User: Which sequence fits this backbone?
């Protein structure tokens, strides 16, 4: 097999398993070496045991699945708000030049502010309620939705727009029946980026402005000097993030197949 040949599905999974096994072996050897106390570097089986305990017994007021449910609810609220605001606004900016001129300067100034930088503002306004994390998630997820919607709509072939104008179709119908379908693949691609940034922003928000959720669990695990708890929470965060990305990837492929049919 040369370096440029594509991997078969079997080869891909074998290499993936080999990489995971190598990581676990290295981790186990480091934990058993005694160079670092087990309290700070638990073995893989210690983390698995703690993960099972967090599922069955409350920690920081809730079981692991309850913490995850709180996090997912906050993420869903912030992500959906970003979609509901970002897609219509991106389409309007692409069609109406005056909307573009009004929104772009403000948006360009805001989008370079890291979502975590909104934490002090969110804490002052909302405390530990749901509003703070939702705001921070929105600020992380909103820019990719708007940018991909705008670029997708601006990239629509001019002949389709000219055809709609010749038929006397108004602005609203042109946006919903011409720009939106044509920009949809770009929009869906942006949703994957948006979801990843939103999920990362959520965890950062929960580290500071939440009284439940997986980020809050990490804080309490750190306060109790329980590395196994912290690592269990990190594993849960990674698994949920992966599942969200897999769902959006499948949605993206379904959209591409549908539009290509």
Assistant:
């Amino acid at each position: 097999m040369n370096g440029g040949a594509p991997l078969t599905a079997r080869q891909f999974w074998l290499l993936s398993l080999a990489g995971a096994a190598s990581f676990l072996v290295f981790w186990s050897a480091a934990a058993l070496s005694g160079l670092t106390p087990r309290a700070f570097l638990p073995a893989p089986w210690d983390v698995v045991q703690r993960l099972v305990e967090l599922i069955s017994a409350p920690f920081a007021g809730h079981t692991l699945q309850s913490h995850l449910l709180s996090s997912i609810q906050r993420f869903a609220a912030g992500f959906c708000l970003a979609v509901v605001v970002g897609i219509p606004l991106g389409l309007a900016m692409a069609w109406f030049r005056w909307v573009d001129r009004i929104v772009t300067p403000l948006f360009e100034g805001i989008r370079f502010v890291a979502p975590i930088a909104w934490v002090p503002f969110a804490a002052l306004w909302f405390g530990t309620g749901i509003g703070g994390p939702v705001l921070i998630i929105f600020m992380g997820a909103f820019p990719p939705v708007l940018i991909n919607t705008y670029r997708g709509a601006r990239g629509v072939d001019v002949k389709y727009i000219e055809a709609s104008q010749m038929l006397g179709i108004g602005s609203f119908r042109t946006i919903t029946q011409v720009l939106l379908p044509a920009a949809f693949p770009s929009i869906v691609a942006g949703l994957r980026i948006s979801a990843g940034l939103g999920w990362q922003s959520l965890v950062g928000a929960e580290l500071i402005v939440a009284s439940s959720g997986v980020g809050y669990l990490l804080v309490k695990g750190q306060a109790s000097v329980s590395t196994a708890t912290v690592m269990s929470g990190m594993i849960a965060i990674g698994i949920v993030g992966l599942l969200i990305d897999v769902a959006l990837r499948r949605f993206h492929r379904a959209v591409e197949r549908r539009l290509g049919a």
In short: Residues 14 and 20 are 10 Å apart (CA to CA).
